[in-house]
Amino acid sequence: MTQSSPVFADVDTGVDDALALIYLLASPDADLVGIASTGGNVGVQQVCANNLGLLELCQATSVPVSKGADETLTGPLRTPSKVHGPRGLGYADVPASEAALTDYDSATAWVRAARAFPGELIGVATGPLTNLALALRAEPALPTLLRRLVIMGGSYDHIGNTTAVAEWNISVDPEAAAEVFAAWSDEGLGPQRLPILCGLDLTRNVAITPEVLARLAASAGSTSTIMSVDDKRGTLSTASNPVIRVIEDAMRFYLEGYYDNGHGYLAHLHDPLAAAVALDPELIATRSGRVDVELDGTLTRGMTVTDWRREPNARIGVGVDPAAFFERFIERVGPFARRLAP
Ligand code: BDR
Ligand code: CA
């Protein structure tokens, strides 16, 4: 039997966050012990609803969901991202959930989870880092309490997706990211404890296409019609499997957004790659470096400035085999979806 590790996810769900959560729930080596919600792709209230709805869909309603920051450390959130749609899940409707949020917030949830599994907990953050920064203020020992931290965020020696140089998650709350990186900068932590950063230069290599989605549906034993750029916008999935239906409806909106932004009819699975790396860091090649977040620049605020010569404070993802990632994704999520709706 596969040994499972406790995992805590901090998300701003979001189409790709949703796929990351489904991946974690589908993974026999992960025991998802909590979800922190943060405002980002959409407002925090909507992120909470999306998380609860996804757990309902995946029959995993015992996973506690916490509400977190609806503001950054320094003020209001930037305008929600357009690529995820007004409710964050594209065209998808997730089932309504009766489940309640925890009576403690997301920062407290981080601290409780880390203390409950000292030295064991794997943290994965795929949204702005506000909750984690607040958790560090409450429990400065988090870097030693966690077994591993994987962050989707930043862009290393590469362009941005929110400004010319800044990536979305860092750009939403640069001060939070700076506090998190500073907390992990202690030289005494050792290389294995350095956070693993999955930036755009890495995650832009994993582009999902209609062909990959069709393989996923087949592996779930679901009917499905292969999506095409020529389909009427907003065409809803007719897949027989409910999990595949939600994935396809969410992904269609994401594919359309990417297409409109000039990328082609594909989309980058930033957050699912980070989730997969959280469970298996061997999926990517990393290089240790020093990352500082620009807080002041009028053009460069939120940029992750990378210095490969200084004492490292992170392991930066620099190489991935997209085919291996998609194979892993399909072999986990397909049978999981099939099990939920035999
Ligand atoms: C990140 O920004 C969000 O829109 C995605 O969910 C991902 O976490 C990519 O820059
Ligand atoms: Ca995200």
From TrEMBL:
UniProt domain Inosine/uridine-preferring nucleoside hydrolase: residue ranges: 7-327
One of the Pfam families matching this protein, by short name: IU_nuc_hydro
GO CC terms of this entry: cytosol
Signal peptide from the UniProt entry: none
Record-linked InterPro entries: Inosine/uridine_hydrolase_dom, IUNH, Ribo_hydro-like
Keywords, alphabetical: Glycosidase, Hydrolase
CDD domains: nuc_hydro_3 (cd02653)
Name of the protein this chain belongs to: Nucleoside hydrolase
Native source organism of the sequence: Mycobacterium florentinum
Higher taxonomy: Bacteria, Bacillati, Actinomycetota, Actinomycetes, Mycobacteriales
